[in-house]
Write a structure and sequence with these properties.
The protein is of the alpha+beta class. It has 13 helices and 7 strands. Helix 3 packs parallel to helix 11 and helix 5 runs antiparallel to helix 12.
């Protein structure tokens, strides 16, 4: 436990320092690390303790840089949405959302290589867009405990300076973090371990904010933007790989392939279901998966019953290919296997 706490503190300090320099991302960076010490449903609660503390420290340090014209449109729609996200956290598998968010963050890869002229173009969105962004941010924040980096592109494209991004994001998110903590407590997610690890993250976040206050003036706006997009892509890679690994483990997924006489057979296991993809050089791709006899139309059921009369074992598969659909029956009788194709 002590070693885990020390490693989490060091990792959190580095993550929050990078997040200020890169325009956000500490929470998304910390999600994979917290997976080692907390159950998935408790991670957002621990993150919210740390990010709330970070927001308070950044507001105090960068108060005069807050763009209140954005805050007043962003926060109101986010408040009810954060409740919905927090409530769904108790019933949804967080790894599916983590997978989607990882892909979304990876979509920022082309922006890293944009020219200086393209990156500096500001686009002041209509106020209704600010409402929609606040609504979405509140929902995702309640469900994951992290949201800043996900909407980093919005801050970067809106024409804010690096100090304004740090300050305005903190102001937008502080109230959401406080609401989330109340909701997480009511849902029984603030356990002793959550409070302990949340406190460690909070201390690291506050100390990093103090250090970043001195470093930020020496970073150019162009470098700040490129670092911001790079942080989104790196976090997306980490989230996608972590979610994929957890979903594979949860669902006992596996993928295998072998050479066949006329092509290649590939099998995928997902929970208790098996899917087979067959590539025949002369016929193309075919997708096969096992079914029960009652799932087949009545006419074909009768045909299969005739074929399988007296059989020791019967295995049925439904087959889809390019412009074709049929059933395959594998009949085991007297130590011999016969294969039949039945067409609708």
């Amino acid at each position: 436990m002590l070693l885990s706490g020390i490693l989490l503190f060091l990792f959190s300090f580095l993550a929050f320092s990078l997040s200020a320099v890169c325009g956000g991302g500490a929470s998304f960076i910390l999600i994979p690390a917290l997976n080692w010490v907390l159950p998935g449903a408790q991670i957002p609660a621990a993150l919210s303790i740390g990010t709330a503390s970070s927001s308070v420290s950044r507001i105090l340090l960068f108060f005069r840089n807050i763009r209140w014209s954005i805050v007043i449109w962003f926060v109101p729609p986010a408040i009810p949405a954060v409740w919905l996200g927090s409530w769904l956290l108790t019933s949804l598998n967080p790894f599916y959302l983590e997978l989607i968010l990882g892909l979304f963050l990876l979509s920022n890869l082309p922006l890293i290589f944009k020219s200086k002229k393209e990156s500096s173009i500001a686009s002041h969105m209509p106020k209704v867009y600010l409402l929609l962004i606040g609504l979405t941010a509140g929902f995702v924040s309640g469900l994951t405990g992290a949201v800043g980096l996900l909407f980093n592109r919005f801050y970067l494209r809106y024409g804010l300076s690096k100090e304004e991004i740090v300050a305005t994001r903190a102001a937008n998110e502080l109230l959401l973090h406080c609401i989330k903590l109340v909701l997480y407590a009511s849902f029984g997610l603030l356990t002793q371990h959550v409070l302990l690890f949340g406190f460690i993250i909070a201390v690291a976040a506050i100390l990093s904010s103090i250090g970043v206050k001195r470093i930020l003036p020496y970073i150019s706006e162009q470098l700040f933007q490129r670092l911001g997009y790079s942080a989104m892509v790196i976090s997306g890679m980490a989230m996608f790989s972590n979610a994929t690994a957890n979903l594979v483990h949860q669902n006992k997924a596996s993928l295998s392939y072998q050479s066949a006489d006329k092509g290649i057979d590939m099998k995928m296991q997902w929970k208790k279901s098996t899917f087979e993809l067959e590539l025949e050089y002369d016929e193309g791709f075919e997708l096969e998966y096992p079914i029960q006899q009652y799932q087949i139309p009545l006419k074909q059921q009768q045909e299969i019953s005739e074929i399988a009369r007296g059989a020791d074992k019967l295995v049925l598969e439904e087959v889809y290919g390019v412009n074709k659909h049929y059933y395959e029956a594998y009949v085991y009788k007297g130590g011999k296997l016969d294969k039949y194709s039945i067409y609708p």
